User: Which sequence fits this backbone?
């Protein structure tokens, strides 16, 4: 509990692309979070949105601490842009839609504050309060990704591909990240686990979107994720 008696700054990085329907609501929910011993820095990256996302952000500067507007480069580019300006001791990722609930921050950050955690994963499968039923093959794919990661890294995570990954910022050099697609999450987690010592996971609730509602990840993305997990384990 080495960090229990000091304030810990956590940079919440929120990549956004065409999220005019939800961006203000998400930021309002994040801004209201109050976790004792934790200071939140809200960093939004508008990744070249073509809708009203930029207009909404410009009109509500009280909802964030830093904003980056850039040409569209994909989520990986947005994450790197957010990491470049983040100033927290820890990084926590938040999607700009409403699939993940910021009310879970207190649960996610407790191991950081009380147990000296280097990495905390939010798990949709570890007794969440609720979870929306979603695609069967997504669950199978997530199980396969998590199984491979655990075997290669000797860990016991139950859900490595939820959005809620929180890690000590010093463990991962954001500028040196090599991947830019969905596999970037696996690269970041792999590097954080390789460099860290204390890992936790906590239950989180999940309100997943359908493809009709805007979900973007597809089955073929799993190939790059597998390759990244293997490469990060054997090619440091």
Assistant:
């Amino acid at each position: 509990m080495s960090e229990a008696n000091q304030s810990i700054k956590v940079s919440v990085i929120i990549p956004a692309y065409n999220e005019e329907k939800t961006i203000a609501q998400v930021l309002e929910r994040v801004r209201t979070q109050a976790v004792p011993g934790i200071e939140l820095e809200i960093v939004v990256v508008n990744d070249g949105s073509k809708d009203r996302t930029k207009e909404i952000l410009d009109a509500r500067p009280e909802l964030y601490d830093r904003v980056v507007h850039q040409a569209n480069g994909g989520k990986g580019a947005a994450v790197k842009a957010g990491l470049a300006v983040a100033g927290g001791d820890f990084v926590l990722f938040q999607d700009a839609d409403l699939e993940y609930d910021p009310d879970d921050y207190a649960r996610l950050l407790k191991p950081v504050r009380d147990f000296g955690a280097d990495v905390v994963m939010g798990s949709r499968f570890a007794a969440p309060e609720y979870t929306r039923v979603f695609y069967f093959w997504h669950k199978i794919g997530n199980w396969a990704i998590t199984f491979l990661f655990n075997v290669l890294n000797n860990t016991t995570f139950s859900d490595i591909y939820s959005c809620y990954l929180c890690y000590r910022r010093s463990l991962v050099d954001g500028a040196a990240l090599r991947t830019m697609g969905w596999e970037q999450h696996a690269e970041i987690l792999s590097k954080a686990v390789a460099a860290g010592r204390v890992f936790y996971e906590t239950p989180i609730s999940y309100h997943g979107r359908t493809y009709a509602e805007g979900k973007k990840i597809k089955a073929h993305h799993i190939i790059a994720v597998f390759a990244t997990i293997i490469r990060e384990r054997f090619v440091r």
About this structure: The longest strand covers residues 38-47. Residues 50 and 230 are 36 Å apart (CA to CA). The helical segments are 23-31, 53-59, 75-85, 105-115, 136-153, 184-195, 221-234.
